[in-house]
Design brief:
- This protein is of the alpha/beta class.
- It has a single domain, classed as TIM Barrel.
- It has 12 helices and 12 strands.
- It has an 8-stranded parallel beta barrel, surrounded by 5 helices. The protein has a two-stranded antiparallel ribbon with strand order 4-5. It has a two-stranded antiparallel ribbon with strand order 10-11.
- The chain is globular.
- About 3% of the residues have low confidence.
């Protein structure tokens, strides 16, 4: 299976950072102009720089910039030996040209394109073929069904779930059987739908965004335990909770893709207070925390520039004092029984 679990060295020896780097993945949403535009050259530089710095997994989706992220990742990696990196992308939306569209409600600063849900068998196959063209590759190492769940689809969730189980996931399994996909799974933001699907369809992996993070563990502990028990690899995306713990200067203004309420920012400040007292970087602690769980194979960090790549690599290599994890647990900020690095 192409999604390999990391080899953890909790001893604090100098090579521990190198082992952790193997678990760091490049998140491609910012390369799709998430929230703000990035020019082609800067996006390609960031992707190429990530590979040169030792990052070997690149995650994207058709939805990210309505194909822009996939195209940029494909262009940036085109001259690099395909055997030296792995790719994950997603299915569940199709992309169309819409010259009159100038809308930022999806969060992507891209005009003239739109995305729409399609969980049919045909939609999954069309999405996959389009992804191969944009990524300039003949195979995808991990294909994820994107954004099913009640939080996304509301009252249509039962209908969407049935279509996912009866059409989308079987089509993805066929692609895996054909050898053009290495592994299949879900790419979602909520625990409940993972548990619903896992008991009804065999998955290789789950990408869980904004859950099981340093900031929160309660909304994902059940799925983490089930994944570990069943050998399902977990990729944790959004380790900074949409930027809430992304800066070492203090809490960010966003959480779960929206403005952070005062109570959320106040709780986030407690992490900064503890880390300041123990001499740790909040960003490093947030990036390294999920890696301690035995179910976690990768931590996917959205990266917009070469400077952000450098910051992530530095944070993943940084030694977080053991006293930090102890203090966070004693303050009730890490739940009892949760593994720490």
């Amino acid at each position: 299976m192409p999604v390999q679990h990391h080899d953890q060295d909790p001893s604090g020896k100098p090579d521990a950072g190198t082992a952790r780097l193997a678990s760091l993945a490049f998140g491609g949403a910012p390369a799709g102009n998430l929230y703000t535009g990035v020019n082609d050259a800067d996006a390609r530089d960031a992707i190429g720089h990530a590979w040169r710095e030792g990052i070997r997994h690149f995650d994207t989706a058709p939805y990210y910039g309505y194909g822009l992220s996939e195209t940029r990742i494909g262009d940036a990696l085109a001259g690099i030996d395909r055997a030296t990196y792995t790719l994950s992308t997603k299915a569940g939306r199709l992309i169309d040209v819409d010259q009159d569209r100038h809308d930022r409600s999806d969060g992507f600063a891209v005009d003239g394109r739109r995305a729409y849900f399609d969980y049919t068998r045909d939609g999954v196959l069309r999405s996959f073929e389009s992804s191969l063209r944009r990524l300039r590759t003949g195979r995808i190492d991990l294909l994820l069904l994107h954004d099913i769940g009640e939080l996304t689809h509301g009252p249509r969730h039962p209908q969407v779930l049935a279509q996912a189980l009866n059409e989308a996931l079987p089509a993805m399994a066929e692609l895996r059987d054909q050898g053009v996909v290495g592994a299949i799974g879900l790419g979602v933001n909520e625990e409940a739908v993972c548990l619903e699907v896992m008991q009804r369809f065999p998955l290789d992996a789950i990408m869980l965004a904004g859950r099981y993070t340093l900031f929160e563990q309660s909304h994902s502990r059940a799925v983490m335990a089930k994944a570990q028990a069943e050998g399902v690899s977990v990729l944790i995306a959004g380790p900074y909770n949409s930027g809430l713990l992304g800066s070492d200067a203090g809490p960010g203004d966003t959480y779960d893709y929206a403005p952070a309420p005062p109570a959320i920012k106040a709780r986030a400040q407690q992490f900064y207070d503890v880390c300041a007292h123990t001499g740790a970087s909040v960003g490093a602690a947030a990036l390294q925390f999920p890696m301690a769980h035995p179910a976690v194979a990768k931590v996917v960090c959205g990266l917009r520039s070469s400077a952000e790549v450098d910051s992530a690599v530095e944070r993943i290599r940084e030694r977080v004092p053991a006293a930090t994890w102890t203090a966070l647990a004693e303050a009730g900020l890490i739940e009892a029984g949760v593994p720490v690095p």
